[in-house]
Specification:
alpha+beta, three-stranded mixed β-sheet, three-stranded antiparallel β-sheet, 3 helices, about 15% helix, rod-shaped
Length: about 210
C-alpha cells in the first residue's frame, strides 16, 4: 500500500481519539504527542504525485557525463558529452594530392600466331621489248607497215607515223593492233610524190 494511502487511514482512525483526549489536560498532552508522531497529510499526500522511479527510464538513470549504463543528456552547451564519442563537425576540405609515380613498363605480351598464307597473285609483266620497222618512200599510193612481237610475247601497246615528200600529204590512214593480236600495223597515203610508213609495238611476257 502506498505511504500516502496508509497515512490517510491512520489519520482517519486516530481522529476520534484526538477528539476525545482533547477534552482534558492529560488528554490534550497525549494528543499533542500523537499528532507530532504522525506526519502531516499535506506532506505525505504529495508523494503520490511523484513516482519513486520517475527519474529512471527502463531502470536507467540519465547522465550528463555519459556514465556506463546511463542515458546521455544534452548539456547546457547543447551538445552530448564527449565521453560517448559524439560526432564532431566535418573538417575542411584538403587540397588534392600529387599524382603518384609512373608505374613500371609491363612485360611484352606473347607473339601472336601467323595468319594463313594468302593466295598467290597473278604473274607480273616481264621481258619488256620495243619492236619497230618502216617502209621505203616511193610513189605507191598506200603504204602499210606491220611489226610483230617475238614468239611468247604479247603487245602492250603500239603506234606509228607516215612521211612523204613532193606532193600533197602524207596522211595517216590506219594505226591499230593486228587482227591476230600479235603485232601493230600503220598505213599512210599521199596525193602526189612519195610516202613511207613507220610502225612500232611494245612487247612483253604477260602472265
Amino acid at each position: 500500500m502506498h505511504k500516502a494511502h496508509r497515512a490517510s487511514l491512520i489519520l482517519s482512525a486516530t481522529a476520534p481519539a484526538v477528539a476525545v483526549l482533547g477534552t482534558t489536560p492529560l488528554g490534550q498532552a497525549a494528543g499533542d504527542r500523537l499528532a507530532k508522531a504522525i506526519p502531516p497529510f499535506s506532506k505525505t499526500a504529495g508523494y503520490a504525485k511523484f513516482a519513486g522511479d520517475s527519474t529512471k527510464l527502463n531502470g536507467r538513470r540519465s547522465s550528463l557525463k555519459g556514465a556506463p549504463g546511463s542515458i546521455p543528456v544534452v548539456g547546457s552547451n547543447g551538445k552530448l558529452p564527449a565521453s560517448i564519442g559524439a560526432v564532431g563537425l566535418q573538417g575542411p576540405a584538403r587540397p588534392k594530392g600529387d599524382n603518384g609515380l609512373k608505374g613500371d613498363k609491363g612485360d611484352k605480351g606473347p607473339k601472336g600466331s601467323a595468319g594463313p598464307t594468302g593466295a598467290a597473285g597473278p604473274a607480273g609483266i616481264s621481258g619488256y621489248q620495243l619492236v619497230t620497222g618502216g617502209t621505203e618512200n616511193d610513189s605507191v599510193l598506200f603504204h602499210t607497215k606491220t611489226v610483230y612481237c617475238p614468239t611468247g610475247k604479247k603487245p602492250l601497246g603500239g603506234g606509228g607515223f607516215v612521211n612523204g615528200v613532193n606532193g600533197g600529204g602524207p596522211w595517216l590512214v590506219a594505226n591499230a593492233p593486228t587482227p591476230d593480236g600479235n603485232g601493230w600495223s600503220v598505213t599512210g597515203t599521199r596525193s602526189a610524190g612519195s610516202v613511207g610508213a613507220v610502225a612500232y609495238v611494245i612487247c612483253a611476257f604477260v602472265g
